[in-house]
Design a protein that fits this description.
CATH architecture of the largest domain: Orthogonal Bundle
Strand order of the largest sheet: 1-2
Structural class: mainly alpha
Number of helices: 16
Largest sheet: 2 strands, antiparallel
CATH class of the largest domain: Mainly Alpha
GO cellular component, one term: cytoplasm
Pfam families: DnaJ, zf-C2H2_jaz, ZUO1-like_ZHD
Number of domains: 3
Organism: Lipomyces starkeyi NRRL Y-11557
CATH superfamily of the largest domain: DnaJ domain
Keywords: Metal-binding, Zinc, Zinc-finger
Radius of gyration: 44 Å
Number of strands: 2
Strand content: under 5%
Protein name: J domain-containing protein
Helix content: 55-70%
Shape: elongated
């Protein structure tokens, strides 16, 4: 009769992870060879059992599995030390769930080699028998891969083995689980009821069998040195990749800072250039145009209001100008009609597009572009024209 893992560690079944860890350390000290010189072999064997108990109970998933199958696991063991099955369970039903549960014992796999009682030999025999039973149940089924040995590489057959067996689904019919013989049914109605009940029992047994095999695959994989080495290599590759990503990000940030430091505003983007531009525009118009038939001096005086006397002069002439199309009008009404024209609106869109393109070319900050976009969406054409006109004065 096997000993319960909780009893080996002398703890309750509701023990916390911290209590399990402390109990294991306590038992390890008690079973240390230096304290058991008169019974070294017995202490070593007991310590192996304690270590197996700790490996199972310290893992949340394996502990949950052990708790749910504890009574079955503690029944008298049927597997032999060489990895075979014997006893009444090896009937036409083949390997049953109970048979596999007896192999959830880390002590059976303590010797990691290819000897008859070693990890690779025992595991290989178990999986070979399971695969053979699946082939007998459905000869057309895809053959399940072999477990291999200590020389099998992870990149080759080992990874393929775990990929195939992790999704195990039995082909065995499980008709030995039937409770009723259909031949005993007195009529069709009773026969259907029998079939339904038998199917329910088969499906339940099949699900339990599939879950047990997949749990055993995970149990073996966790202890497989080939898988551990692959996991270590994978973690190292991930660390190397993370380091490279951080280095590239640091280089990109440094390059961005250098570009920002080296950036200089273009002349046309400075406020001084804006003021100079509009002064030259009004000066040119004053020389070449005569608004409302008045003298050029009057136009110049009106256009250069920034330099004129701040007091209102009744002789001043108000200029209505479209800064986008570079046209002047006799009245505000004419300017309003012009701003509603397709030609004017097309000109506004062209100016906006050119400004965005220029911003992108010189590397304008994205926040400025967002502000410009919001302004263009929230302001009408008239508001935008008024704003530009205001900036020009």
């Amino acid at each position: 009769m096997k000993t319960c893992y909780y009893e080996l560690l002398e703890i309750g079944r509701d023990a916390s992870p911290d209590e399990i860890r402390k109990a294991y350390r306590r038992q390890a000290l008690l079973l240390h060879p230096d304290k058991n010189m008169h019974r070294v072999e017995e202490a070593t064997q007991k310590f192996a059992q304690v270590q197996a108990a700790y490996e199972i109970l310290s893992d949340p998933d394996e502990r949950a599995w052990y708790d749910s199958h504890r009574e079955q696991i503690l029944r008298e063991a049927s597997p032999t030390t060489s990895g075979g099955f014997d006893g009444p369970s090896s009937t036409s039903a083949g390997t049953k769930t109970q048979d596999i549960l007896h192999f959830f014992d880390p002590g059976l796999f303590a010797i990691i080699d290819d000897s008859e009682i070693g990890f690779f030999t025992i595991a290989r025999k178990v999986f070979a028998q399971l695969a053979d039973e699946e082939t007998q149940a459905d000869d057309n089924d895809v053959r399940l891969p072999n477990f291999g040995d200590s020389r099998s590489s992870w990149a080759g057959e080992t990874r393929y083995f775990y990929a195939a067996w992790s999704g195990f689904s039995t082909r065995k019919p499980f008709d030995w689980c039937d409770q009723y013989r259909l031949a005993d049914a007195p009529d069709r109605r009773v026969r259907r009821a029998m079939e339904k009940e038998n199917k329910k029992l088969r499906d339940a047994a099949k699900k339990e069998y599939n879950d047990t095999v997949k749990a055993f695959v995970a149990f073996i994989k966790k202890r497989d040195p080939r898988s551990k080495q692959s996991t270590a290599n994978s973690e190292q590759r991930q660390q190397d990749m993370a380091t490279k990503v951080k280095e590239q990000a640091a280089k990109a940030r440094a390059a961005h800072r250098n570009r920002f430091k080296a950036y200089e505003d273009q002349d046309w983007a400075t406020p001084e250039y804006d003021e100079q531009f509009w002064d030259e525009e009004y000066s040119t118009k004053a020389k070449n145009e005569n608004v409302n038939g008045e003298d050029v001096e009057a136009v110049t005086s009106a256009g250069g209001g920034a330099n004129a006397d701040s007091d209102y002069d009744e002789n001043e002439i108000i200029v209505y100008e479209c800064v986008f199309c570079k046209k002047t009008f006799k009245s505000e009404k004419q300017l309003g009609v012009h701003e509603q024209s397709n030609k004017h609106q097309k000109m506004v869109r062209d100016v906006v597009r050119r400004m965005k393109k220029e911003n992108a070319r010189i590397g304008r900050d994205s926040a400025e572009e967002d502000e410009f976009k919001d302004a263009r969406e929230n302001f009408s054409v008239e508001d935008l024209a008024d704003e530009v006109s205001h900036l020009s004065t």
